[in-house]
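#help-structures
NK: newbie question, is this the right format to request a structure? protein is Ubiquitin-like modifier-activating enzyme 5
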Amino acid sequence: MEKSNEGAKMGRERIEKMSAEVVDSNPYSRLMALQRMGIVKEYERIRQKSVAVVGVGGVGSVTADMLTRCGIGKLMLFDYDKVELANMNRLFFTPDQAGLSKVEAAAKTLNFINPDVAITTHNYNITTVDNFDHFLGAIRTGGIEQGTPVDLVLSCVDNFEARMAINTACNELSLNWFESGVSENAVSGHIQFIRPGETACFACAPPLVVAENIDEKTLKREGVCAASLPTTMGIVAGMLVQNTLKYLLNFGTVSDYLGYNAMIDFFPRMSLKPNPTCDDRFCIERQRDYLAKPRSETAVAAEEEPEGPLHEDNLYGIELVADDADTAGKSDQQVAATTRGSNIAEGLKLAYDAPVVEAETGQVSVDNDVSLDELMAQMSGMCKPSEQK
């Protein structure tokens, strides 16, 4: 029995090159099928991408799991918390990991799932002065190639202070990043794609708790904790990773902001422009940099190109016929009668035919023998108000 358990924990050997071969022993065959079906041009490029996941909790742990299963090249995990039994209502972590640091427990599980992914762990709070510098240096040099920055930063933290730290770092380094979150009542969430200088950063329109410099610790009530649902967190993590893959592998449309309301299954989307008076000086600098960039030729061509017919060649000879082609010269009643008769289903018939209404004649009868002066006099009498006593 012990041998069986040990064998199950051995995992698999590393794979040097992704293969599209459809065999049960190939963990990448279904991912490479996206390339065969024309969704992704070259899926194996994902091995050249590095992503930093900040916060390995309800959203971050599932995000890291999905990226690992997708074969991301390098994954950097940031967190300073420990696994608790209170976290077992969520996905990913297991009871035997209670007491371990989240990054340590996550790295062990993820390496077992996919040993091809290079995983680095950073067990510290990024909001302190010293640790912020460590975080800044880590994402500045955490790319696949030595000394290059990560391709994307994913914020999966649960507090505003950490979000602001990530925002400041990414603005300073001009790194694109995703902010994500789940509401305190666990029935809504969102992701926001932030491109410094091009879209609003987290400080451009900060929450009240940040704008008013309120200490978050004073908002927490003794014995009261936020709710969390693995369903909502899983959906938000799925939205986050889906848009991460679209961005890294260049397919589909990446959402600037995508929300989720579980109560009515509503997914709002929007775009947010940067605030020219943002308090973050690096955001202002990135805005200047973005405005100074020459506009791409494709963007200019898209605006100037006149909108033509969708299918100009018309291979199938399809023609559009105006709705009023058969109704010219007919009154509204005649058209309605014709329409009622033609819209009945096969096998049915009308109980009676609608009467054909002749074209209406004028309400005022004009006698050809009446002179114009007499007609004017009659009309004046009709318009004179009646006298009331």
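mod (FA): yep, format's fine, and the tokens are attached above. The mean pLDDT is 82.
NK: thank you!
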